[in-house]
Amino acid sequence: MKPGADPETGDGDYFEVIEEEFIRLRGSPLLLNPADWHLAQQWRQEGIPLALVLESIREVFARRAERLAASPEAPKRRVGSLRYCRAAVEKAWALYRELGAAPPVRRRPSAIDVPARLGLLASALPAALADVDAWRSRLLELSGPAPEVEVRLADLDVELTAAAFESLPPAERDAVTAGADEVLDRMAGRVDEKRLPDLRQRLVRRSVRERAGLPLLSLFAEPAAGTAPD
Mean pLDDT across the stretch 148-162? Predict the structure, then answer.
């Protein structure tokens, strides 16, 4: 393995962690396409540390979120491929090598205005949501550096979608789970069986968000189609 690679991370884990982070930020359960996997394979073969790839992807989405917030009327095209992040990853890798294997995570002084983004997320919660004021308060109470807040938002997102799922009528809950199972059936043989439970939960949460009109609770994720930047 080349210098800089993650010795404790196997090829499969390397690809899957990148895929899961990209999917989370994009707000879509769709898997990476073969061209994206080939790109990730190139990064792995070059010895690009996983932490560097993940930080670069998050920075791309953070900058995109800032641009969307600054120009809400601009056309909003979703990020459809990992290749959208290629230049950022390779630029970070070049800098990493130039500095003689400096720490892989590069901190920017103010990558994103955390309080402002939390305020937008809170305001994006639908008024019809049960206990909406309590959820908004929990969002607005978060504080700290963006990476720490992002971790806590991920936990809140799981909790919120679980509560929203339980509040759906039984017929809608059945439709959500049936839809997730249908997608997984089409993926039979293409996905490691160990990943199926987690992927199923992601599909369920995605469907619940769409039905309940919930934003993805993330500082960096791009807004859902047809909505204002969150």
Answer: 89
Q: Give the pLDDT of residue 5.
A: 40
Cα separation of 125 and 157, whole Å?
Answer: 12
SS (H, E, C) the chain: CCCCCCCCCCHHHHHHHHHHHHHHHHCCCCCCCHHHHHHHHHHHHHCCCHHHHHHHHHHHHHHHHHHHHHCCCCCCCCCCCHHHHHHHHHHHHHHHHHCCCCCCCCCCCCCCCHHHHHHHHHHHCCCCCCCHHHHHHHHHCCCCCHHHHHHHHHHHHHHHHHHHHHHCCHHHHHHHHHHHHHHHHHCCCCCCHHHHHHHHHHHHHHHHHHHHCCCCCCCCCCCCCCCCCC
Domain boundaries, the chain: 11-98, 114-212
Q: Considering the entire predicted model, what is its pTM?
A: 0.59
Of all residues in the chain, what percent carry a pLDDT higher than 90? 20
Nearest residue to 87 via CA among 47, 110, 53, 111 = 53
pLDDT at position 3 over 90: no
Of 87, 107, 89, residue with least CA distance to 21: 89
Which whole number is the average pLDDT over 199-227?
Answer: 74
Which is nearest to 230 in space by CA: 28, 18, 21, 25? Answer: 25
Residue pair 191/31 in contact (Cβ under 8 Å)? The answer is yes
